[in-house]
Please model this.
Amino acid sequence: MNAIPHDFEIATARCVLRALGVIDAPFIAAALRDDAFAGDMRWDLPRDETALIAAVAASRDKWSAGSAYRFTVLLQATREPLGCIALRHEPRAHDWSIGFWIARPQWGHGFAVEAAAAASEFAFSQLNATTVRAAHAGRNRQSRRVIEKLGMRFKRQLAEGCAASGMPSEFEYTLER
Ligand SMILES: CC(C)(COP(=O)(O)OP(=O)(O)OC[C@H]1O[C@@H](n2cnc3c(N)ncnc32)[C@H](O)[C@@H]1OP(=O)(O)O)[C@@H](O)C(=O)NCCC(=O)NCCS
Model:
């Protein structure tokens, strides 16, 4: 696998995915302050802007190391940020997890599915993934719908639950190459 440069971009019908950068910190901090996000995400970025900037730097180091790829999803027409998509390498070879969020004003337009489908395709074609997995908290119907629309298959209920929210139920799905 070749190293993926930080200026790498993925274009979809309406969006562009590019590496998360410090420039995104104000957008992310504002989006994540929304109560709608409370506890439903496993790989939360910090909401505080100073901590967020450090997390962005760490995320770019992981990108360089090839262990995780965190993308900002932009509207192609205006380059306005819409949300984030992350791919993380799991301990097992060729096994990646995906996580996603979209800022609340942009919900309901199918952006999460469009961006997550493109990121999954990137994992299969460029990261040599054979499995891409996702999980949602039991109460998170919106996330479940995205996962279903990606064509993922239900795999198992995770015993550990959703750490962020303390929710006892978390459900894992996979997409195979
Ligand atoms: C889950 C999330 C990424 C979906 O993004 P999206 O771009 O709106 O996805 P879609 O447009 O495909 O909509 C997904 C479902 O949410 C529903 N939805 C959209 N806006 C909604 C709203 N304001 N309230 C309730 N449901 C809504 C849609 O109707 C759709 O269901 P359907 O396909 O049965 O009609 C987004 O809601 C989000 O960021 N949530 C908070 C973070 C989160 O939970 N991330 C996932 C962690 S596993």
User: Anything to note?
Assistant: The two ends are 17 Å apart (CA to CA). The beta strands are 9-11, 15-19, 68-75, 81-89, 95-102, 131-137, 153-157, 170-176. The chain has a mean pLDDT of 91.
